[in-house]
Amino acid sequence: MTEYEALQLDIKSICAEENPLEFFCGILRCYKIPKATIMRLNLQENFKVDNEIGISNKLSFIFTTSENLYTKFDSLKRIRQRKSSARIIMLMNQRDILVYDTVLEEWLAVSRIEFYKQYDFFLPLMGREKSVLNDRKTVNVRIGEKFAQLYNELLILNSGETGEEEKLRPFLVRLLFCFFADSFGIIMNGSLHQLITMYSKQDGSDLSKLINHIFLSLYNKTDNTVPEYVTDVIVTDNISFFATREEVSTFDASTRKLLLDICEMDWSEVEPDVLGSLIQTIAFPEMAGVAYNYTSTANVYKVIGPLFLNDLYDKFEKAKGNAEKCKEILREITCIKVFDPACGTGNFLMITFRELKLLERRVKTHLREINGECDSKYDVEISQFYGIELNPLACDIAKIGLYFINYKMSMDEEPESIRDLNWLGTNNVIQGIATEYEWDKVCPKDQGTVYIIGNPSYRGARKQTDIQKRIVKTVFKEEIERVMKIGDIDFAACWFYLAAKYISGTNSGFAFVTTNSLTQGVQVPELWPVIFNKGVEISFAHTAFKWKNDGQNNTAVTVVIVGCRSVCFVHEKTIFNNNIAYDVEKISPYLTAGDVIVHKENRASISGLPAMVKGNMPYGKELLLTPTEKDEILTIYPEAAKFLKRVVGSEEFIHNIERWCLWIKDNDLNDALSIPVIAERIENVKQARLASTDKSAHKLAGRAHQFRETNEARKYTLVIPSVSSEKRKYFQVGYVSRNTIVTNLSFAIYDADPWVFGLIASRMHNLWVRTVCGGLETRIRYSNVIGYNTFPIPVLSAEQKNNIRECVFGVIMEREKESERTLAELYDPDEMPEGLLYAHKILDSTIENCYREGGFYTNQERLDCMFELYKQLKGE
Description:
The chain is of the alpha/beta class. About 45% of the residues lie in helices and about 15% in strands. This is site-specific DNA-methyltransferase (adenine-specific).
């Protein structure tokens, strides 16, 4: 027996322990926590319901009587304003366990009795990290991979057939239905594997005929074309889902084996919401992305919890012991409608349906306990759930998934409605383009409260297809006429705008997962005013976090969650940031406290800082030279040296790349033209500018010996790269001499005082720019008119400026100790020298004390302070 097998057995032995304190102590013993450490915790005295106990830096444990652990976790964020540094946070009630790994940002939700199966989640308690092993893949992943493999092999096998892909989709959807239904005994009592094994050849040549017979009998088992060995095992027919005939022309031995392998798997353990997304991600990789990633229950809860579910559980806790109030809750949840206008394979809809069914079940269980009976007329129904999805396969998977989640949730009660398989053809998930529908007709809002949720399709403004660009223009047509600019608007903004129009003036709400670009940069002043003008405000937000796809590779993207409600209904407003919840009066589009929207400042800095400008644009590649070209000129014409200067843009500056340029003043032009190679280059620039379609280039042809701008310093230039990696903690700003020219691919402040260097290199400025400028893929996009000119700083005294200068000299000195390394290497977050990092921390502390004595504890506090100062400087 291996060490891990022994650990799993030890944990299994305590899973049945009802006493929560004994359970917790057992966990500590299993993971080799020393007995002396356990004794020091003084658990007998410190253990209380809803009280936190645990081991500093390792484990925080809370036992609660709350029915819903996700709701409890959200409330803990508020109470504690989390300062705990525990790696693992564990919540438990009498039935379930919810665990969060603060380092990996991963969740585990499991019943107490099944806890032992997830033993590796707690390996960090032993100083070990869990590994992802292929042989321990969940049944969801294994079936998803097999099903996608079947799709791909059938597609290749039948590639000669016309319209094969169109035929294959409905065939696979029907197979998917059969696998689920057969595992529950709804249609064949588990006979599908047996039928295929016994009544098809090993080479697969007659398998499509057999499967077609199965499909025919599921619609009409009296069909005389279907053999008795098929109809004898069919227990349910007249399913309209199988009314039309669909046939796949060819199977072979390999695809038959794949089908049997899939049949053999335990489909009763499959979660339809997970499987649908896996099939889609693997079989259709071109659909992968933010809008099609599977979202875990924990992350869906970040959407539906603050939007409405936490409130329902709070009402339930208060209603306990009061039968009438419990019935009011049941009436309320059966009047809720949930609408996902970009539903994919139905992930959000399925998880939300399951969570509402769980709440319904808990309320009914409590009613039986206090009343002896429960009115069963209040049931959460699939008809309360609506969706729109463009991809037809995803749409069908969503319908099937919703049905089978309903079946699994209702198996104990077995109402007749769950056997109504014809629901599959009539439910509220429709196939189409969400932006082309009137949402009120898809999901009528005249009765009950509607909650719109999901993760709409994301496509940056520069990467949209022509069709998507036309959709954006159509959606925002009214606003464009009111001078809204849509050149920088992401595709996902359409969903936010349409949702805002939908909920305006109602008690409904919406919450979407999206990339953080909608809450940064130039999109904020363009998009959010038109949303707010619909009478909508942000009611809650999760600031940027890594959102992991539970598919094959568990890759992560950075997203935010934004929830909105009508202003005519009073709601608490909460910002969730790094597992801390802040209750605030208002939430800005930057997901900070307040209502500030930062606009471009084209003229000057609002804080009175010196002008920052873009560098000089060559407007002709012949004005730039490589080191080799420069050396060749000087070898023949040494007198050309006075016309050559070192040149830097962002790349050259950060990576110390050598590049040169021609830099000729008007009164030196004749001397420069006397050098043939320079004269030739100038002529080439002139012709290129004259040939340009840009009219301004024609004017520049008259001075082809110069860059478009001719700015240079008297002493030195402060260079600010226009793009920087989001992984780096600081901007790699620095000085170059007056003999180095800065191109338009960087920003420049000529003859800048070192205290200005300090401000731009600070954590405060980095945070401000990240927030208001936005990003470019995984890079930060710097802007002088948005990031620098709007940067709020308090009035600095002479002493404060001098203190900052001293800190800057410390940073420069530490850089010079590593002079052989480039700025890119020095500011690599994994390789940054300790001395340089320390110098920056001293600089940060000095600058932050200029804003507030004692500095700040969190980025949230820093942003709150800067936005408030921004308002003051703008006179708002």
